[in-house]
Amino acid sequence: MIGKVSGRIDHRGADHVLIDTGGVGYIVYCSSRTLAQLPDVGGTAALYTELVVREDLLQLYGFPTLAEREWHLLLTSVQGVGAKAALSVLGTLGTDGVSRAITLGDATAIKAAPGVGPKIASRVVLELKDKAPAVMALGAAGARRASGAAPVAVIDTGDTVADAPDGAPSGGPDAAGAGAAAQADALSALLNLGYGQGEAAAAVAEAAGAASEDAADAADLIRAALKLLAPKG
Description:
The protein is α+β, with helices and mostly antiparallel strands.
């Protein structure tokens, strides 16, 4: 399977680019949002890719991040959502917008993508709501690694929620590091959904406090925190 393509852009089309990887050119289909971020002909680009195989053709789809590729895979797992429809959703909303729409059950936002009707949009929200936190965690972790930021643990101080100083998380060094990274990724994902810093940090801290030491998984923390943040009644 072709997982990534890097090289010089030889041609730009309405929905694809031709990337020369050193004598071999790959036609890679991209969302409108991704195409707008790529350089002009002659520039270099690197895209994570997904190869879609059908009886009569092979098509390569490209994404700037692993999280976006995972969202595309997840969207196409829904019956009635093809590869190009999934690209349309990502091009319209972006990864953060897709995360927000699915997590909050906003089928109207999904329906805004060209080629996606109301029934398909509702199905996307219904089928992917429980799967979304894992991809959100991947995106948050990728953003943290790209920025070079060290993970910061979120700790509950009683009346307030604050960032833990270096070395503050309890437990062994490995557990502390993993727990801090998971909490940081969960917090980042919630902030991208539009929650305030204080309420998001408090929810992550409560979720982390309720989890066992070996269950400090970012996706699980996101799920638990979202339940805490959900409107009551």
